[in-house]
Design brief:
The protein is of the alpha+beta class and about 325 residues long. Helices cover about 55% and strands about 15% of the residues. The protein is built from eleven helices and eight strands. Strand 7 and strand 8 form a beta hairpin. Helix 2 (about 20-35) crosses helix 3 (about 55-65) and helix 8 packs across helix 11 (about 300-320). The protein is rod-shaped. The protein starts with a helix and ends with a helix.
Length: about 325
């Protein structure tokens, strides 16, 4: 199950909004996944979704507000990637009243399909949240993939996006979210517009705003797992780099000692240099710190390194 679908199901387990919040919720849902058509003088409105559970949730709102029920059908024309889509049909007997209440029709009966969000529906903060919740259920998606095994590498980013054919709707939805300090960007992909949020903190805040609290916890846990894995990788890379440097330095020192041995002999070196040369020959792979631990030489790491530099210099001069 995708991360966004899981979040939507969590929302649908929450309290069903009623009264003004119920209208705001239905408006957000209809804006984001609805179709309103007028054919032969007959008007109809449906909600298209791949989440069947939305029907029961929204039906409770409609029954509470209008005492009526919606119908649910499987939409055969919307089978994409083996996903079954459902058509939730708003009741014709109260459709005009609903469209006026949800901000799609004027009092004179004129339809408004411009994508404008009716201001009176989002006057209060709780109504704004209800509208955003409906919009999230209708058109929000995410490609976040949670880590199932701590050692498993999951490289997907953190983002949530809202898609729509209406630029105006996404612009106004973006303004609503901005009131909660959530700043998204709008881009166009082919014939769709996309309002997206890419920062993990903003994704987490959006999930909390719409009531997907379990998903917030899962996302925070994912952040912690990835940070721990990255830290371990950094430490491992650093250790590997240090080992490589130690081996490289040791090889240079051994090569220099070999040059001196084959030319003037180690006995030609000052006693303090003979001492560290023999120490290196006896411990070819150890770091300077380990060499000091293995020897009785009373030197600091810097002092030992200084003596090896002298040996390298002598070997270079002999080669030249």
């Amino acid at each position: 199950m995708s991360f966004s679908r899981q979040a939507k199901l969590q929302i649908l387990e929450g309290e069903v909004p009623t009264d003004c919040c119920g209208m705001a919720f239905m408006s957000g849902l209809l804006h984001s996944s609805g179709e309103i058509t007028l054919s032969g003088g007959e008007m109809s409105a449906v909600i298209l979704t791949d989440i069947q559970e939305i029907y029961a949730f929204a039906n409770k709102i409609i029954h509470s507000l209008y005492g009526d029920y919606m119908e649910l059908e499987i939409e055969d024309d919307y089978k994409i990637n083996k996903t079954v889509y459902y058509k939730i049909i708003l009741p014709p007997s109260h459709l005009g009243e609903m469209l006026r209440d949800f901000g799609f029709m004027s009092e004179s009966g004129e339809l408004d399909l411009s994508g404008m969000i009716e201001p009176r529906l989002v006057m209060e903060e709780h109504c704004k949240k209800a509208f955003i919740k409906g919009a999230f259920l209708g058109c929000a998606t995410s490609s976040i993939k949670l880590t199932k095994v701590p050692s498993e590498k999951t490289s997907s980013g953190y983002h949530i996006e809202f898609t729509s054919h209406s630029h105006r709707f996404l612009t106004e939805l973006g303004s609503l979210l901005a009131e909660f300090n959530l700043m998204g960007k709008i881009v166009q992909r082919k014939n769709l517009f996309v309002l997206y949020f890419k920062e993990a903190s903003q994704v987490s805040d959006i999930l909390a705003l719409v009531g997907a609290y379990d998903s917030v916890l899962e996302l925070q846990n994912e952040l912690a797992v990835r940070e721990l894995r990255n830290k371990v990788n950094r430490q491992t890379n650093c250790l590997s780099a240090n080992i490589s440097k130690t081996v490289e330095a040791s090889m240079r020192q051994l090569d220099a000692i070999e040059v001196i041995t084959q030319t003037i002999g180690l006995e030609a070196l000052p006693e303090e240099l003979q001492e560290v040369a023999l120490l290196r020959l006896a411990n070819t792979e150890e770091s300077l710190d380990e060499l000091l631990k293995l020897s009785k030489i009373k030197l600091t790491k810097s002092g030992l390194n200084h003596r090896f530099r002298k040996i390298l210099k002598i070997a270079k001069e002999l080669q030249e």
